[in-house]
Amino acid sequence: MVENPPSQSEQPAAASPATVKSETRKVLCLQILRQFVAVAGAAALYRLLGPEPFGLYGMVIPLLMLPRMAATLGLSAATVQIEQLSSSQRSAIFYITTGLGILAAVLTGGLGHLFSRIYDVPELVWISWAFAGTTVIDAIGLTHFASIQRRMQLGRIAGIRVASQTVAVAVAIIVAVRIEDHPDSVAGSGILAILALEYGQLAVNSLGYWISGGWRPGRLAATDLKQLLTFGGNYSLSSLVFYAGQNLDKIILAVVLGSTRTGQRLLGIYTAMYNLMMKPVYFVTDPVTSVMLPSLSRARKSAADYRRIALDFYRFTAILLIPAGLGLAVVSGDVALLISGPGWDEAALMLFALAPAVCVHGLINISGSLLASVGQTDRLLGAAFILLLLQAQGYIAAYWFATQFEIPGNVTEGQAVCVAVAVAYSLVLLMAIIPYLTYCFSRVGMQIRGLLLEWIQVLGRAMLMSFTVWFVQDLLLANGVGLALRLTISIGVGVAAYGLLMWPRITESVLPFFVGRKTDTGDV
Fold it and tell me: What share of the chain is helix, strand, coil (3-state, %, to 5)?
């Protein structure tokens, strides 16, 4: 398909409540399938590869993602947020994004040389260059992705991501099996399976976005990009700072532990448990943010619609993630053992320490879309900087605490540092959530007080649910019930208990996103 003439401009799709909830419903249903594939794939790779490759992955992922986010994410978000977008602007964004992606890939490779010396891990050089190409593949598809998002065809995006996740997991497992059959073929060869996972997922994503995007880039011509570049620059920088805070814990652990094989093993366990902790967060926030930015950007001219849509997303996120965080903490031992398998003895305690962050992580994540929807990316940047400073202080305090006091039993200093940093990760987010959201809400003319009262009720009922699950789990353990059955029953009891306690709120704020509901104004 050739591009539209330069005089034409693309109008974004309308964001009626029916459209918002219909598209969110599609994304959520497909997200369930995607997360099932992701967790099953992770469990297989944990058993086939062991913790050490994930330690190397934990070292390289900040070097990969920080340049990528700085270079590519902002213009994609600006493409979604802007009211009118000409075809010449869209083509220019594509070429700029691709060029920035290439520069980011080169920067990732260069950082590998620097951090291989900081971490004292020579393999990081070739690993960084190997992962760098994924940024170029990602950049090629971002403008097409934004074009689909502008049209509010979010179910199509979710379908592409399910396909890419499935293909990537299958390829990664094949590579991991071959590595297991030839363990001495390449030094650090376990990382090749994770590399295959990244390339497979991003390649299928970009291919799907190109096929579904409905346009092809035209000739590069002079056009006005000042507004897009200003918005994109601030958004990229705020995302970069926020992501740095999320990954500063792994950078600190890599500096402290990464030079030894035992340290890489602990870092691998920490990285794997962090990724596992983030599964429920991504399950909720991926569909929410994919719908939230375009829908709020379209609704900003109507204060009533804007407020209603925003509050719906915050209620939905809290009702799902607060019990998920508490429930994960209760069953963390069984989850870690079932997913990671033998040889990951320290995983349960790390997952337990990280689990409370689930309760608030999603609320912080979606607030970026709230401020970006009204163009206040400079305010978003300021909030991200403050959160980064708080996280840095928390991790430093955690490291000092773990190394200054006598460690009980047979716990090593490395294990103590990992657990202390995990505790700090959760504590900082829990302490920062109310001031952070108060600030974000005030910038868009909204009050948080009413939501806080609702969330306190959600928290109380989620705590009752978690006590019920703890009692049932303890009873099952005492009677020798097997791991898989015990975890299945515990989760089922938790879902049932929370459903009974929260049923009126669930029918009002959650079910409409999954199941259409007839009203006087139509399906929502």
Answer: 80, 0, 15
pLDDT in tens, 289-342: 877 877 787 787 788 888 888 998 999 999 999 999 999 999 999 999 998 877
Q: Tell me the pLDDT tens digit for each residue of 180-238.
A: 766 554 445 789 999 999 999 999 999 999 998 777 887 765 565 666 666 666 677 77
The position carrying tokens 């019990």 is 323
- 3, pLDDT greater than 50: no
Residue type, 185: S
Cβ atoms within 10 Å, residue 409? 4
Contact 189, 179 (CB under 8 A): yes
Q: How far is CA 9 from the centre of its chain?
A: 32
Crossing angle of helices 483-509 and 449-478, in 10° steps, is: 160
Residue with tokens 């398909």: 1
Count CB-CB contacts under 10 A for residue 84. 9
Token representation of residue 390: 């708080």
Which SS3 state, helix, strand or coil, does residue 10 take? strand
| Alpha carbons 10 and 147: distance in angstroms, whole number | 9
* HSE-up of residue 218 (Cα within 13 Å, Cβ side): 17
- For residue 205, the model assigns a pLDDT of 94
For residue 331, how many other CB atoms are within 10 A of its CB? 22
Who contacts 434 (Cβ-Cβ below 8 Å, separation ≥6)?
448, 452
Q: Are 57 and 194 in contact (CB under 8 A)?
A: yes
Tell whether pTM > 0.85: no
Q: Which two tokens stand for residue 244?
A: 């740095």
DSSP reduced 3-state for 247: helix
Q: Which of 80, 487, 101, 516 is nearest to 294 (CA)?
A: 80
Q: How many CA atoms lie within 13 A of 271 on its CB side?
A: 31
Distance CA 201, CA 292 (A): 24
Between vectors from CA 340 to CA 335 and to CA 346, what angle results, nearest 5°? 85
Q: By C-alpha distance, which of 59, 185, 49 is closest to 122? A: 59
Rounded to an integer, what distance in angstroms lies between the CA atom of residue 516 and that of residue 24? 11
DSSP 261-318: HHHHHHHHHHHHHHHHHHHHHHHHHHHHHHHHHHHHHHHTT-HHHHHHHHHHHHHHHH
CA–CA distance, 267 with 46 (Å, rounded to integer): 14
